[in-house]
Amino acid sequence: MKCKKCGSKASVNMRQHKLALCKDHFLEWIPEQTERFIKKYDMFRREQKILVAVSGGKDSLSLWDILTRLGYQADGLYIGLGIDEGIGYSTESHRLCEKFASERGLKLHVVDVAQEYGQPIPVLAEISHRGQGKPCAVCGLAKRHIMNRIARDLGYDVLATGHNLDDEAAVLFGNTLQWAGNFLVRQSPVLPETPGLARKVKPLCRFYEREMASYAILRGIEYIYEECPFAQGSTSIYYKELLNKLETDKPGSKLTFYLRFLEARESGLFAATKESAPNLHPCPNCGQPTSTDDFCSFCRMIEKAKVASNPLP
Ligand code: SF4
Ligand code: ZN
Prior knowledge:
The protein is 49% helix and 12% strand. By secondary structure, it is an alpha/beta fold. It has a domain at 44-227 and 234-267: HUPs (Rossmann fold, 3-Layer(aba) Sandwich), CATH 3.40.50. Helix 1 packs across helix 9, helix 2 packs across helix 9 (209-219) and helix 5 (121-128) crosses helix 6 (136-153). It is globular and about 75 Å long. The relative contact order is 0.14.
């Protein structure tokens, strides 16, 4: 297999695009495509300040690498979840993010959940009894809250995450299986800023996971290979496996599934759902939007954890 651009030996063959590229041309192609997506979906401009949420994994670190190579002003945000049993997932992912940032002279903000909110994610999850033994619901809630808080408090114009096509297709598949209109209407490469919520973008949403892994490896980015231990057996991994089977038989299916959805969404297929969006108002404690009259779910969870760890005498 030869590189389509220069004819030398190809390093990456992308059947879905009928495109094979050598290492150098692949490392050029990914940032070029990312720039195209940023423009196509009108994500952000050069003069804006971007906060990249980094987990230490291949996607988010590659995103940070690509954005800075493209000349964007991008700082990182690492959230220490305190998930350290077994492989020391949080400690290792934090180390890799710090290493990435210091080697490139980039600014990394770090929020440690246990330090700021009293308990690490697994304990918060135990106390709040959400999600049947898995901390993912609590973790997702905390990550969304913290990313939003830091982006707004520190004056970033946009929050960027490293979701790739496999992530997006798996979420879409799950929501489609349930025809979850409220979730479908919110799934987009760009979520505009709304009162209390920062603008969110996913510049890698059209790249296959395999493409991002190849990018990280060929670029020499050191990232954490292991998934979070709680990811094992998750529904999203199961959906990814199903979609991979489909992709093997019909290359390009995943991309078509996602892109046709975006077109349908753009053409107003879910317009009726938009109107039924819940009425949101600011949480009296943190100011982030909530649909209840009380504190938002995050603040309620933290309050509950405080009470549980300091029971009244
Ligand atoms: Fe959080 Fe791990 Fe669950 Fe992901 S898999 S949401 S990092 S607990
Ligand atoms: Zn709140």
